[in-house]
Design a protein that fits this description.
This protein is of the alpha+beta class and 314 residues long. It contains 10 helices and 11 strands. It is globular, with a radius of gyration of 20 Å.
Amino acid sequence: MILPALASNLNPRPIHQFGFRLLFALFTLWIAPALAQEPELTDAQVLQMTKYNSIQWQEGPVKVQIGNMGELQLPAGYRYAGGTGAQTLLELYGNPPNPRILGAVVPSAEDADWTLIFQFDDVGYVKDEDKDSIDAAEILSSFQAGLPEMNRVRREMGADECSGISWMEQPFYDSQTNNLTWAINLAFSDGSSVNYDIRMLGRKGVMEATLLGDPATYTKSLPQVKELLSAYAFTSGNKYTEWTQGDKVAAYGLTGLVAGGGLALAAKSGLLAKFGLLLAKGGKAIILAIVVVVGFVFNFVRKLFGGNNESSPQ
């Protein structure tokens, strides 16, 4: 039986794509020239910029190490931050430290606003004996039953509530690659968010890769992400097929991975906190628009369109 309580920590909402493009356009047309005239930054803003600039990015094409468990042949057009850099990136997103985070991939293209997060769960060898009996309807029911508790947490965070959960893609297990995939659609008052999850089974645990974005991002980026992950491999000695008697075995199977994995990037982590996806566009001038002049931007937009809402932007 799947515990409904597990569904209390589903992912928070990413920033709307229109908001990103509007901010970037305003920055380019009106704000960038002003910033060139030696803007005065607060100590906090300087600290954020310093942290961001400290991230060591590896530009493709290059083979990158994901912890000591896996490696990825990163093609041109993408950049990768290892454990330390990914941790810094997530802290800028508003996350608490998470030792399980091993890396992050972001695309270099201006119109590709998504982030792929890698983390490893050392639960042990996950048996796939239930590969033909994963009950997607039951799992979804447990997620939906947990909505009230999830929204209680989101209200405490000051985030808008989730009004519905559905499958974008039902769980699918590939016996050849030992990869388990699924996608969840989360509905909100002004749109929806999609989390595409891939669990790559290994000898000692599971490498988790999660694509973060909205439905439009998901549809456009999924082929790129699948191609990226086809170039992932566990290092020697850590492959699923290298399990031997005496190795640690996980306490649950594939159904347990989906039931818990759909919640892996919990609301309490703030992974998709406001401006999160904007910060993911590493090295772009847009980060200045966020850190330096975000207050000006929203005041400007409010005046431009005659709005009177004086609340802080979310």
